Amino acid sequence: MPKVLGNIVLVGETGSGKSSIINMIAGAEFAPISNGAAGCTFDYHSYILPVHGRNFKFFDTAGLNEGEMGTVERSVAIAKVYKLITSLDGGINLLMFCMRGPRIKNATHQNWKIFHEILCKKQVPTVLIVTGLEHEENLDEWWWNNKGTFEDQGIRPDATACITATRGKLIRDG
């Protein structure tokens, strides 16, 4: 088994791109993804992935806020992540909080508070990953134009990444 340097946990709403981020880091389709109306991750799954030649264990968790008819009820999903966090050998080294842009929903603010402030007690470095910005010309500019809105809502990450976690469609000529 390869030496693992740390644990990285991805959390966020259903459809925010957590599994797609795992696949992007892996450079392959490891985590199942879905374009369906319901989420496809029911519990957490772990993946040992190399980053700059060093291995980290990434945890892809069940999506939040699917609604009453969703795959995993919100309270159950939060309980599963809590159980994961408290059982990790070595604790969490990084929390990746994923959200689908461009708007901050009330659920985004609530989830940030639950994970960053309550479960991780503001002790775990947290990266905000904003997906769904495919129509933006400049992703860095989008962040700097919107950073104040996030801060006004108490969302103050240690770092941010505004990305598109999809490869898009192949367009063939003729």
UniProtKB/TrEMBL annotation:
<dbReference type="InterPro" id="IPR027417">
    <property type="entry name" value="P-loop_NTPase"/>
</dbReference>
<feature type="domain" description="G">
    <location>
        <begin position="8"/>
        <end position="129"/>
    </location>
</feature>
<protein>
    <recommendedName>
        <fullName>G domain-containing protein</fullName>
    </recommendedName>
</protein>
<dbReference type="InterPro" id="IPR006073">
    <property type="entry name" value="GTP-bd"/>
</dbReference>
<dbReference type="InterPro" id="IPR025662">
    <property type="entry name" value="Sigma_54_int_dom_ATP-bd_1"/>
</dbReference>
<dbReference type="GO" id="GO:0005525">
    <property type="term" value="F:GTP binding"/>
</dbReference>
<dbReference type="Pfam" id="PF01926">
    <property type="entry name" value="MMR_HSR1"/>
</dbReference>
